[in-house]
Design brief:
Length: 521
């Protein structure tokens, strides 16, 4: 298929990346990769975590320089030394981890670096008008006056998209754009992308989510371990075929698990209230539920309805305003994070950078962040480095965490998906009574998702209680034994995944349907 593509007239392509090779210490990230983007198409880039997708796009955007290969724009060879060169060529990029100044307003972030000035003063009125018109035109509905740290991740992503549109970019790169979005926001983003493509803009779309690729992409290029496996048209393939190309083996897309065998209550949340950002109003309102040993209870809901604050309160990242959190019969409402950890809570956090990792530490140091002080890893105040290294090496192999320099790799240099796998490996391996997993498969490929889902079910079957907080409806329906739905900080539904449908779940999540039964309080 790919050889047929390369025989086409080069004028058909707005961007060509020919025979790109990019090497980092210990790893060939891109190995003789060729990618061709047609004008006005949505072209997906698919591959496992660490396959080289983001690296290839970073070469196109000027963040990295390739050791070999060339880039053509409209059939002419160009040199892209930095993002400014890329911007001048009409290339824009929404990064997997947003490049926003959190204390600035949305408008200030949009115009940052391309400010229009007169007599030394920034002309914000004209910029505001242009940004507002673009926001309305593409259905982004962004509040330009809001401070970035106070808006949802979905709105932050829309801000990044608006930044590209404001700069009149014609080639748009989306790096894992749906990893942090709700199902509703994903649908809206897909509509925006189709609208952009219909106007002649060309889109490169990095994703692990096969259903999204099948829904929106015209063609797909698959990478595996740095090499290009091939380019196919989505209308000529299936999600299963793409997953097999990506992973190199047959992947089980639906988890196979036995009915739960529940035991005693491990987590009991009683009339819990938690304040939101700025302590202005309650984000969690009088919430009651429990999780038993040997079951997976999922908290479902549209992002921003209190799930984040609920997870923070249970794991100790924020304080409860009232109510009680009981773990294995003991009140932990006012316990510290370390005390909760030692009493048996493992936590896969929503934000891996803020709460899951120390990015400038090595991979092996991150693997023992909560356990370095225990006898297994220290004696008389001195770290047992050999034991730490052996422990990290075991987890890296078990969970297929890919890193250029093994246990000594600085975590910041790893792909987002491999950072996530490192956290999951650490938290699942630690002894725990309760696993709080918030978006555990965010940014992971189908092979890694299959593995982690199986590991979570294995922990359930070994008797652990699992509290899953997820925005992924497929994950909610596949993994959970019981579903608790939150809307505007309250529990509005308690559902059995075996007897409910995605459509019914969506009605509860949107607040269109409500069950006010508080039997667990």
């Amino acid at each position: 298929m790919q050889s047929q593509q390369t025989n086409l007239c080069t004028n058909d392509y707005v961007i060509e990346m020919r025979n790109i090779t990019k090497v980092f210490p210990g790893i060939v990230a891109n190995d003789d990769v060729t990618l061709q983007l047609k004008r006005g198409e949505i072209h997906a880039l698919l591959g496992e975590n660490g396959a080289g997708k983001s690296t290839l796009m970073s070469v196109l955007f000027g963040l990295y320089q390739a050791e070999q290969g060339e880039i053509l724009k409209d059939g002419k060879v160009v040199r892209i030394n930095n993002p400014n060169d890329a911007t001048a060529l009409g290339i824009g990029m929404v990064h997997q981890h947003f490049k926003l100044v959190e204390v600035f307003s949305v408008l200030d972030n949009i115009i940052l670096g391309v400010e229009d000035t007169k007599l030394g003063f920034i002309q914000k009125k004209q910029a505001y008008k242009k940004a507002q018109e673009l926001s309305k035109r593409y259905g982004l509905n962004v509040d330009l006056d809001a401070i970035v740290e106070n808006i949802s991740v979905g709105m932050q992503q829309r801000t990044e998209i608006l930044k590209m549109l404001f700069r009149d970019n014609e080639i748009l790169i989306f790096d894992e754009p749906t990893a942090v979005l709700t199902p509703q926001e994903i649908d809206e983003l897909m509509a925006v992308m189709r609208g952009l493509a219909s106007e002649g803009k060309s889109i490169l779309f990095i994703s692990h989510k096969l259903n999204e690729i099948m829904a929106v992409a015209d063609r797909v290029t698959v990478l595996r371990k740095g090499k290009c496996i091939g380019t196919v048209c989505t209308k000529d393939t299936t999600a299963q075929q793409l997953s097999d190309m990506m992973v190199g083996r047959a992947v089980q897309l639906k988890i196979d698990k036995a009915p739960a065998k529940t035991g005693q209550v491990v987590l009991d949340v009683q009339n819990l209230c938690v304040k939101g950002a700025g302590n202005k109003k309650l984000a969690v309102k009088d919430v009651c539920f429990n999780v038993r040993a040997g079951e997976i209870v999922c908290v479902a809901g549209i992002d921003g309805n209190g799930q984040t604050e609920l997870g923070y309160a249970i794991t100790g990242l924020t304080n409860a305003s009232s109510g009680a959190i009981v773990l294995d019969g003991k009140d932990i409402t006012h316990k510290s994070i370390r005390q909760r950890t030692l009493q048996g809570i493992s936590h896969i956090p929503e934000d891996r950078h803020k709460h899951g990792l120390i990015l400038d530490f090595s991979l092996q140091q991150n693997m023992v962040l909560q356990t370095y002080f225990q006898p297994q890893f220290q004696a008389n105040g001195f770290i047992k480095f050999q034991q730490v290294q052996q422990y990290a090496e075991r987890l890296i192999e078990q969970f297929d965490v890919r890193s250029g320099q093994g246990v000594d790799t600085t975590v910041r240099s790893m792909s987002g998906g491999n950072q996530q796998k490192a956290i999951v490996a650490r938290e699942l391996d630690r002894p725990h009574k309760l696993l709080v997993a918030i978006q555990p498969t965010r940014g992971l490929d189908v092979g890694a998702i299959e593995n982690i889902h199986n590991e979570i079910v294995k922990k359930r079957d070994e008797g652990a209680a699992v509290l899953l907080i997820s925005l992924e409806l497929d994950e909610v329906m596949n993994l959970s034994d019981r579903i608790v739905v939150m809307y505007e900080g309250e529990i509005v539904g308690r559902l059995d995944p075996a007897t409910t449908t995605v459509q019914e779940l969506g009605l509860y999540m949107a607040g269109a349907k409500r069950d006010t039964n508080k039997e667990e309080c």
